[in-house]
Specification:
Length: 551
């Protein structure tokens, strides 16, 4: 687990853990060799199935030496909003190091489980993708649509993993000097290469672009996703490749490509209606979900789940004792005509006597929450929220708590799908890209905003925003509302070169005592703490990455 070289040892193991029973029965070992993996298109698909599953499984169940305290994207997706300051903690709770992560005492430490596991997880994706990318052309099989689909997914996975790595372990493309800033090692050979140095941020971005172009070319001649419904959306396809290209281009300032790719990505994935938007974001089956993990119910990660960390309906102590709240500055700015405002409960009573703002519980027969003068009113509102969202008095409440993310079975620990890409995001990418063109296309940006936001807000009027600054401010606001809880805050703030200030403009509602040094964070261009530390174990073992290469 300590180096890229050692990661190679698990290449064969990950696919076998998701194989069909008949394959396990005719494979006497507990690992699939590279030659066996490439011996048929069916086995190549099993390699992909293993990567699909590895996105959401507890690391200890699929990676030798991995820790079960990290359940893949269950942790990595909400982590973006946790360290980005938008998924706000209301009380002290540190299950899985979630408070430590929020306080910026996690990704800034080279020996932390997070920086090591995240690095390890992404390179495992890359090494499995390399097996297919390099092996399929040499397999001797006649190219078919099925093989092209597999190849397209492999290229897309490699691009996805490298984009994720360089955005976390390298300085932001737009706030640094990508031609000289150090990124991550580029492992492109099957089996991997040990002792690789860090490539520059620019070199990594170039490789990502090449991989996405190769993926789109392969998908163009591919068979398309097999099956239908939420299971099918676990597979990557041409829309996912276009969506990743839109993200990649936006974050490097290639705004023309970002806009074009965003439009291509959302084709065939219509926006949700109000009922679906309010249903909890717990299934790939929603119309605008382009890509997400369909979590197998028999393989739940239990108290390592995305919703355990981020949803106020998951029946776990992290949620029951520490309801997650939204930035009240954002919630207060949502118009009353926008139905998205309904999932942010501004008047939820503060029921936790240990709440970080010291206004929770009841003292001397009087609620400490200043919004309630009597215990009767306080209890009545609590009961109404419980009934509306399917929780009980075992769950604490807090002003500005959210119910955007909800279990399909509220109050349970049942597993739910993890959504990675929606068409709503693509409208927002198109809008931002057009607003940021060298010659800004503000009309085009407003049109993209209108296409999305008018389906959420009956009173929306994009014509109110006439300058580039006003349009960009509106785009940022809409991203904060629409994508809340989906993990984009960290990369958004890096791209926009914005710091974190929970005290500004009336305050976010976060507690300075709880947030400590993360209460105010300087912007990424002047603060390298936004960059994840390279795992110390990698530095110790890699002859070409020394102490001087640390972020």
């Amino acid at each position: 687990m300590k180096t890229i070289k050692k990661i190679i040892l698990v290449m064969a193991l990950l696919p076998i853990l998701s194989c069909e029973d008949e394959f396990i029965e005719r494979t006497p070992t507990n690992a699939m060799s590279a030659s066996a993996a490439l011996s048929s298109p069916e086995n190549m698909q099993l390699v992909l199935n293993g990567v699909h599953r590895g996105l959401y499984s507890q690391a200890g169940t699929v990676f030798p030496g991995g820790s079960n305290d990290r359940g893949g994207e269950h942790f990595w997706v909400p982590m973006g909003d946790n360290i980005g300051g938008s998924l706000i903690h209301s009380a002290d709770a540190n299950n899985l190091g979630w408070r430590t992560n929020m306080q910026w005492n996690d990704h800034t430490v080279p020996t932390s489980l997070t920086v090591e596991s995240f690095w390890y997880h992404r390179y495992n994706i890359i090494l499995h993708a390399n097996l297919l990318i390099n092996g399929i052309p040499d397999s001797g099989f006649t190219p078919t649509p099925v093989l092209n689909e597999i190849l397209g997914q492999a290229y897309t996975y490699r691009a996805y993993a490298y984009l994720s790595l360089v955005q976390h372990y390298g300085k932001g493309y737009l706030v640094g000097n990508p031609t000289t800033d150090k990124g991550v090692p580029l492992v492109l050979e099957s089996g991997g290469l040990s002792n690789l140095p860090r490539s520059t941020v620019e070199q990594v971005y170039v490789q990502i672009g090449q991989d996405l172009d190769a993926a789109i070319a392969a998908f163009t001649n591919g068979s398309g996703r097999s099956g239908s419904g939420p299971v099918a959306k676990s597979q990557l396809n041409i829309n996912v490749a276009h969506g990743l290209k839109a993200r990649w281009a936006l974050n490097k300032g290639d705004y023309t490509t970002a806009a074009t790719s965003a439009v291509a990505a959302r084709a065939g994935f219509p926006l949700m209606n109000e009922a679906d938007w309010k249903s909890g974001f717990n299934t790939n089956n929603l119309s605008e979900v382009i890509w997400g993990s369909n979590v197998i119910s028999t393989e739940t990660v239990f108290f390592r789940a995305y919703f355990y960390l981020a949803s106020n309906t998951f029946n776990g102590s992290q949620i029951r004792t520490n309801p997650k709240i939204a930035d009240r500055r954002v919630v207060d700015a949502i118009p009353s005509t926008d139905y998205r405002k309904d999932v942010f409960i501004k008047d939820a009573p503060n029921t936790n006597g240990s709440a970080a703002n010291a206004q929770g519980g009841v003292s001397g027969g009087v609620p400490r929450d200043p919004n309630y003068a009597t215990v009767a009113a306080y209890n009545a509102r609590r009961a109404a929220i419980n009934a509306q969202f399917g929780i009980t008095n075992s769950f604490n409440q807090h002003p500005y708590m959210h119910f955007k993310l909800k279990n399909a079975n509220p109050g349970s620990i049942d597993p739910d799908d993890i959504i990675y890409m929606r068409s709503a995001e693509m409208y927002l990418i198109e809008a931002e890209a057009k607003a940021m063109l060298p010659s800004p296309d503000l009309a085009g940006a407003r049109a993209a905003l209108t296409a999305l936001v008018s389906t959420r807000d009956t009173g929306y009027n994009a014509a109110l925003f006439t300058t580039q600054a006003e349009v960009m401010a509106q785009i940022k606001f809409q991203r904060r509302v629409e994508l809340y809880g989906e993990g984009f805050s960290y990369t958004d703030k890096i791209r926009w070169d914005e710091g974190i200030d929970h005290s500004a403009n009336g305050g976010s509602g976060a507690s300075q005592t709880l947030y400590q040094n993360a209460y105010i964070i300087a912007r990424p261009s002047v603060n390298d703490d936004w960059i994840f530390k390279i795992p110390q174990a990698e530095i110790d073992a890699n002859a070409n990455i020394g102490p001087g290469d640390q972020n």
